[in-house]
Amino acid sequence: xxxxxxxxxxxxxxxxxxxxxxxxxxxxxxxxxxxxxxxxxxxxxxxxxxxxxxxxxxxxxxxxxxxxxxxxxxxxxxxxxxxxxxxxxxxxxxxxxxxxxxxxxxxxxxxxxxxxxxxxxxxxxxxxxxxxxxxxxxxxxxxxxxxxxxxxxxxxxxxxxxxxxxxxxxxxxxxxxxxxxxxxxxxxxxxxxxxxxxxxxx
Length: 202
Prior knowledge:
Mean pLDDT: 78
Low-confidence stretches: 189-202
Order of helices and strands: HHEEHHHHHH
Shape: elongated
């Protein structure tokens, strides 16, 4: 069978009311059996989806009351700054890592798509212009929840971001590679190239 082959359901609407169906009875039975099998498959998928939704609801309910303990001298895993003295919001992940909001945002932004990155900037600007006395409102909470979903969906040091960053060089090594390329180019041209101060100091 293919898209150009008529099925029994295509033909039935054109049969007159007094037509005998004895000659196509087998085809009708086969079509009904096929529909029955498809319905059973759809019902099975719906049951599986219901079970998945129930599991997600239970997980969300558990996480809504989940508490984590953090040391008073905990430091941002990216900047080394004590988060309680940073003067900004911070995030604690189940992995145990703690991040200041600004450092986490800077780390995650390169891995977001263009639309997500733009939305992060919009949210931060919108939240910035909300007065402190209105920051306990549902409007601010809604913006904060959306921002959390974009930048704190997972720990950047143990989640998919870390996996995606495997093929990226370290900042120092990338800078050294650039300086080596510049030096080789200058040697070929008979010129002199000056190393950057940050590389020379190392």
